[in-house]
């Protein structure tokens, strides 16, 4: 969501910095890893940053969720231009649409509430819904199951991170479209297996229509 359909104006980094500093840690040495793993399940990222210390990882995760909610309430959340319209176009064509995220359900809910997007898509999934988050393929498979669909080759996935692309390709999606409105650049998206690179998700309906 963040960086793909929602503006990525440093929300994740700001929330992480606030959360880690509040736990008495120096966030600066950890920020390169945070940037590298954008899009992945946040608790998984924190477990990697605090190996062998599940209690610490959970504490930081809770603090991160709280910081995200605070920042969203402060206005650090807005739709990317054309995102809602693109989703509406896809639904008008009879396609099912799904939000997936590396955020927790609590943070995802805060984003949807802030934007008034409860009814924008058919389904919204977070890592807890699938068992594993990105870069595993589970979110795609869970979306298919929940929506009663049976062919992953009919899936078009869009995202702004390498983890998004890895998830889509590992699941077998027909389209893994990287968008240049978020965390990773074209080279990183293509290295992770992007089949297409778009300026923004607003271009997704035209791409899907061609395939």
- The amount of beta strand, in percent, is 5-15%
CATH fold node name of the largest domain: Rossmann fold
Mean pLDDT: 92
Give me the count of strands.
Answer: 5
Q: What portion of residues is helical?
A: 40-55%
* Shape, per Cα inertia axes: globular
CATH architecture of the largest domain: 3-Layer(aba) Sandwich
Oligomeric state as shown:
single chain
Which structural class do the helices and strands define? Answer: mainly alpha
Q: What string gives the helices and strands in order?
A: HHHHHEHEHHEHEHEH
- Arrangement of strands in the largest sheet: 3-4-5
Query: Using only CA atoms, what is the Rg?
Result: 16 Å
The DSSP helix count reads 11
What is the CATH class designation of the largest domain?
A: Alpha Beta
Low-confidence runs of at least 5 consecutive residues = none
Secondary structure layout:
Elements: H1 11-22, H2 31-36, H3 42-49, H4 54-73, H5 83-92, E1 98-100, H6 105-115, E2 123-125, H7 127-130, H8 138-147, E3 156-159, H9 162-171, E4 175-179, H10 186-191, E5 196-198, H11 204-209
Helix pairs in contact: 1-4, 3-4, 4-6
Pfam families: Hydrolase
Protein name: Phosphonatase-like hydrolase
InterPro entries: HAD-like_hydrolase_sf, HAD-like_sf, HAD_sf, PhnX-like
Describe this protein with a few key phrases:
211 residues; mainly alpha; Rossmann fold; 3-stranded parallel beta sheet; 11 helices; 5 strands; 49% helix; HAD-like_sf; HAD-like_hydrolase_sf
């Amino acid at each position: 969501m963040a960086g793909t359909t929602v503006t990525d104006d440093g929300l994740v980094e700001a929330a992480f910095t606030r959360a880690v500093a509040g736990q008495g840690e120096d966030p600066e040495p950890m920020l390169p890893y945070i940037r590298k793993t954008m899009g992945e399940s946040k608790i998984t990222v924190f477990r990697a940053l605090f190996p062998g210390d599940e209690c610490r990882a959970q504490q930081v995760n809770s603090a991160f969720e709280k910081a995200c909610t605070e920042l969203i309430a402060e206005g650090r959340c807005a739709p990317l231009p054309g995102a809602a319209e693109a989703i509406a176009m896809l639904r008008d064509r009879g396609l099912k649409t799904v939000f997936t995220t590396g955020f927790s359900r609590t943070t995802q809910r805060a984003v949807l509430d802030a934007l008034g997007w409860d009814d924008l898509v058919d389904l919204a999934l977070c890592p807890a819904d699938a068992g594993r988050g990105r870069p595993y393929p589970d979110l795609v498979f869970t979306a298919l199951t929940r929506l009663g669909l049976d062919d992953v080759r009919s899936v078009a996935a869009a995202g702004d991170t390498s983890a998004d692309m890895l998830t889509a390709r590992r699941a077998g999606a027909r389209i893994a479209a990287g968008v240049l409105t978020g965390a990773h650049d074209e080279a990183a998206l293509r290295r992770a297996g992007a089949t297409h690179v778009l300026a923004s998700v607003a271009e997704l309906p035209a791409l899907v229509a061609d395939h």
